[in-house]
Amino acid sequence: MLEVSPVRAFSDNYIWLIRTPGDPTGAAVVDPGDARPVEDALDREGLRLRAIFVTHHHPDHVGGVRDLVSRHGAPVLGPAREEIPCASSRLSDGDRVNLDELALEFSVLDIPGHTLGHIAFHGHGALFCGDTLFSAGCGRLFEGTPEEMWDSLSKLARLAPSTRVYCAHEYTLANLAFAAAVEPANDAIAARAAVEAAKRREGLPTLPSTIGEERATNPFLRADLAVPRRAAEAHAGRPLATPVASFAALREWKNGFK
Ligand SMILES: [Zn+2]
């Protein structure tokens, strides 16, 4: 199992720091929106930065890339279809990342919707999925269509239930409040809300979650099921004949949910 720890940035971002199994003094980071907290974490742990993974082009995911590359010279592995600072590998669906000397190996998934070129890294039982799948939620559709996002989320939902989900923001409690509004009688959502609220009171991250937990509690992965679909229909005031229509209505509902 990979050793992964969160580096906090901005108000609610997590930059994931991965210890590289093949190099005890090495580390990789995912989506370094800010270089300073990454440098602090590397210094504190006595680690050298060996690789930078990027899921999509938004500034809070790439803002620290240039500074980290200029200091550490680490390769930048990012999406083929987006402009990423200092990109050394441009990756898309089906590509494999093999960093032999670090003993890190990931497969790349195209997951458009939040942005058009958004990718995820999957390997070692872990998923680094940026702003596409959140814990109990999903990213906003800034560039893609509901159909693209639904396909992307469905692709992630098919991964093994034990897969650990490392997304890029601490949104879990707000997302679970929405999930409970969609499915008030879902015991898994209520139970999870209590567990995650206790973590937050202790100042702990709620992440990673797992694909299995997401399938049980995330309304956006459950948009094709009867209860979430009926809730979406009641809110939208019209029938929703397809999973994509149900997903789109849930996403619209969440955009205005307080
Ligand atoms: Zn984003």
Task: Walk me through the structure.
With 258 residues, the protein is α/β, with parallel strands linked by helices. Helix content is 36%, strand content 24%. The protein has 9 helices and 14 strands. It has helices at 35-45, 59-62, 65-72, 146-157, 172-182, 187-201, 211-217, 226-236, 243-255; strands at 3-9, 13-19, 26-30, 48-53, 76-79, 89-91, 96-99, 104-110, 119-123, 126-130, 133-134, 137-138, 164-167, 209-210. Strands 1-2-3-4-5-6 form a 6-stranded mixed β-sheet, with helices on one face. A hairpin with a 2-residue loop joins strand 11 and strand 12. Helix 5 (172-182) packs antiparallel against helix 6 (187-201) and helix 8 (226-236) crosses helix 9 (243-255). The longest helix is centred in the last third of the chain and has 15 residues, at 187-201. The protein is globular and about 55 Å long. The termini are far apart. The model has no long low-confidence stretch (mean pLDDT 98). The structure holds zinc ion. The site of zinc ion has 4 residues, from loops. Zinc ion (ZN) is lined by residues 56, 58, 114, 131.
Give the termini distance in whole angstroms: 37 Å
In spatial order, strands of the major sheet run 1-2-3-4-5-6
How many helical stretches? Answer: 9
Low-confidence stretches: none
Main pleated sheet: 6 strands, mixed
Q: How many β strands by DSSP?
A: 14
Taken in chain order, the helices and strands follow as EEEHEHHEEEEEEEEHEHHEHHH
Round the Cα radius of gyration to an integer and report it: 18 Å
Shape: globular
Bound molecules: zinc ion
Strand content: 15-25%
- Fraction of residues in helix: 25-40%
Structural class: alpha/beta
Mean pLDDT, rounded to whole units? 98
